Amino acid sequence: MRYTRLNSLRNRFAPFSRVTRGALAGQFSRPMQACLALLAALALDTGLPSQANAQNSAVLVLDYSGSMWSQISGASKIVVARDMAKTLIEEYEGKLNLGVLTFGSKKANACDDIDALRPVGPIDLKTYAQALDGAKPKGSAPVAASLTAANAMFKGSGAHSIIMIVDGPDNCKADPCAAARTLKQKSPEAIVHLIAFDAQAGEKYQELSCVPEETGGVFATAINEGELELHLRRAFQLAAAGAGAGPLSGSAGAPFASDLARTPASPPVFTSNEPGTLSMAAVMSGGGQPLISGIIWRVFEGRVQDDGSYRLIATHREARPNITMRPGEYLINASYGRANITKRLTIWPGKTQQDIFNLNAGGLRLYATLAKQPLLSEQTLAFEVYSEETDQFGNRRKVIANAKSGVVMRLNSGTYRIHSVYGNSNALIEADVTVEPGKLTEATVDHQAGKVMFKLVQKPGGEALADTIWNIYSGDGALVKKSGGAFPSHVLAAGTYQLKVEHGGREIGANFSVEPGDKKQVEVVMP
Fold it and tell me: What predicted TM-score, i.e. pTM, was given to this entire model?
């Protein structure tokens, strides 16, 4: 299998701007806003000193694995987490010594991909922000190894904290719980606070709760931007004070704010059964114009069924539907090509509501060439699009199969792995490409391959012999293709090859080579 860089990659800018945090906050329903405001007030009333001890130090560990490109509240998780981190870093400039460490930002699939972006020291917002902006999510999630690396960044004794934002468990076959126990034995003064940031944060994230428990820190799950801000602010407050998990001020024994956030909210109580109306529109990116066609809306009951699924109630294909429904909670999915977003919304009795769904999506159009010559209408050319992130076994999720050259594919923003396959043997190219919100990304891959037809003859220029088996091997002896017939034809990657031809109980050997753009015939003469 061969790898190549993209031959060309160019972005066409559409008149869209990235989603702002303010716009995202406006997408929460009023009850959720009120709840978050109450939680924020509780979190701020911690009883901690108003002026943080400048001697206390912390390391912020940010998850830059490939899955951080997935969406939450209409924006990529990495964008939300990075912007929130920069906000808190700015607030604690001069109040906390801070280091920044990321994992998964340099390699597509490597469990040693851990990078200390900034050493522990006084905060300088500009350099910290530049370091965070310069890293891009790519690979794996070595959570346990990152704990050890973060603790090694501290020098000297004294209280120090590690603040982690992750969007999933360790996928490098390591044990974060054991790493946390070892860390605490070596550094009794260390405290780890961990926030699991994902819209589907549930039981699978509870396995990470042992990390703060082993070290006396706080564990929290955040399913949206508001909850992330709440928990991250709380973690910074504790780190600045050199404190671990403790009761909130004036309420000994009360649950932490993170526990309140994790407690399932009671369903809203309605005083009337009068239907409400919901008007919806979708945009490709923040500030963009509403889409006028091609959008599909699916409405699900907000209550999960016994089998873990949600019941589909209705499907709408109007670009801007007005839906009248009885009061209640619903899950609404908007899809545009392969780009989609799901929101949980509450319909209130007798009210008309409006909501804009930000798909945070872009377009991808792929082309291929053969030795710099177009392959636009070649039927033996196909593209496959895979997610960049891999599971614990190194497998990628196929997003689009048999994509055609020159056709625009609508995808959520993020990085994707492209497979370009020409022919049915070894002419395969892999490349990574990034789709940005509101932009059309066009990429061209150049195949270094050629077309070869084979024939076995009794004398030079003679008639091809039927009932022939062709075994094609690469220069290092690996079988590339096996076929039969008088005139087999294959597309082969440029290189040297060995032939073993079987006919009438005999085996004939031969060597040949392929140059980029070749259209040639290889004739083998019977000895």
Answer: 0.49
